[in-house]
């Protein structure tokens, strides 16, 4: 985030190729004014980095970690095993199984290692950003107000455009 405030949310992904999905989490955090950091942290290629990132996240001021991964999707669970912070897992669509493999890998955590699992792809990343903001908003009134304003905008957009036809005029 471009502001001077310390990051509250870590947005990590298993590879640079996950960015087209994970950028939607970042866009939501930016929209809601939540300070974040983002980087590639691979569970398989950089396990020492993963452990260091997760173990130091709380002391660095993070309050939530959003972790996106495809395929075997070990990143969210491995991060959750190394931090007391909430971890939100975003399944990134894979070529082989369209993200179902990622979804099941993230959702099927053993009891005692919790990962909040979101939808596959863009919707999941968007909602992970929103949910991370809601968590930060528990202790930050400005973020909570931004979430409430976002929801009010969504409601108003539906009320202003009740006719689903593309060429319909708002009433």
TrEMBL record:
Gene3D superfamilies: 3.40.50.1970. GO terms for molecular function: 5-(carboxyamino)imidazole ribonucleotide mutase activity; phosphoribosylaminoimidazole carboxylase activity. Substrate binds at residues 15, 18, 45. Its EC number is 5.4.99.18. The keyword Isomerase applies. Residues 7-158 form the PurE domain. InterPro entries: PurE_ClassI, PurE_dom, PurE_prokaryotes. Keywords: Isomerase, Lyase, Purine biosynthesis. Coiled coil: none annotated. It is an enzyme of class 5 (isomerase). Pathway: Purine metabolism; IMP biosynthesis via de novo pathway; 5-amino-1-(5-phospho-D-ribosyl)imidazole-4-carboxylate from 5-amino-1-(5-phospho-D-ribosyl)imidazole (N5-CAIR route): step 2/2. This is N5-carboxyaminoimidazole ribonucleotide mutase. The lineage of its organism: Bacteria, Pseudomonadati, Pseudomonadota, Gammaproteobacteria, Oceanospirillales.
